Amino acid sequence: MKKITRVVAVLLTFVLALIVAGCGDxxxxxxxxxxxxxxxxxxxxxxxxxxxxxxxxxxSTEGQKMLQSLKQQTLDQMINEILISEYGKxxxxxxxxxxxxxxxxxxxxxxxxxxxxxxxxxxxNITDKDLQEMVRVQLINDKIYNEVTKGITVSEQEVKEYYxxxxxxxxxxxxxxxQVRHILIAVNDGNAQxxxxxxxxxxxxxxxxxxxxxxxIKQIKAGKDFATLAKEKSDDPGVKExxxxxTFSRGEMVxxxxxxxxxxxxxxxxxxxxxxxxxxxxxxxxxxxxPARQKTYEEVKExxxxxLLEKKKREAYNKFLEDLKKKAKIETKLSFK
Length: 337
What we know:
Its EC number is 5.2.1.8. This is peptidylprolyl isomerase. One of its GO terms (molecular function) is peptidyl-prolyl cis-trans isomerase activity. InterPro entries: PPIase_dom_sf, PPIase_PpiC, PrsA_foldase, Trigger_fact/SurA_dom_sf. There is one protein chain. The chain has 337 residues and is of the alpha+beta class. The chain is 52% helix and 13% strand. It folds into two domains: 6-149, Triger factor/SurA peptide-binding fold, CATH 1.10.4030; 176-291, Chitinase A, domain 3 (Roll), CATH 3.10.50.40. It is built from twelve helices and nine strands. A four-stranded antiparallel sheet has the order 5-4-7-6, with helices on both faces. Strands 2-1-9 form a three-stranded antiparallel sheet. A hairpin with a 2-residue loop joins strand 1 and strand 2 (33-36). The relative contact order is 0.13.
């Protein structure tokens, strides 16, 4: 679960683009309770502000596609909020003031400071009243969710059957990996302070860094221990103490480093020339080739059990919401373009 709870995420993750045509004072009615055009537009302004803060260009083709795809989802969300509130009232499920306050305090605690929390709300046009209501509805939702899903379980047989059916899929494969040692000779070009991988105390030009890396390659070829040199000379503080060791698969490192490492054919091989990346110059030694393999049932069974349990719960709760909708009288007056 992300650090910012679902209470705020309801508004922070749902985004829409709405063009309301000829819909009067309200856009929908749920059992006689209206969703006013004013409230709908206000919700839109909040989520639109959030997307802009996230750097999404809503005028771009991709931005427009995103907005279009979430229109109905957003309306459904507002309808669900009414249905949940009504069901909670009927079943006398209502959070206390203390529960609401405690939940808001939990949300506030996820931010670096109270000022950051207030700024996040202000930037998204979320008032204290909005937050109180969102928390109230979410707490009702949580209580109902727990009640609806409390008897759901997953058997070991179900987990095994799922594993057998899906074990050849990428999620159950560990890709081929390389275990290497490396020595980084950083270049202090004025940007080092912005990158934690650089030793910012070095005073070294690109040419000086390359020359030093070439000299170290000569020492290694002459018999100098690679791990010892890494501890003495490497400017990568993250792995300096363990002899500059990394274990990784394709897609985890910068391309130049990765390509050079995977080009080495057998353990003990080193790069013949320094490998230039944005971090500086690297000398890479291949330690081990770790073949691709399939994850065993024992490795993934707990993860699978949790996944299947959550899936069952989501399905049960979604059915519960659909049943509420079927019993409700819902009228919509939205026209999307």
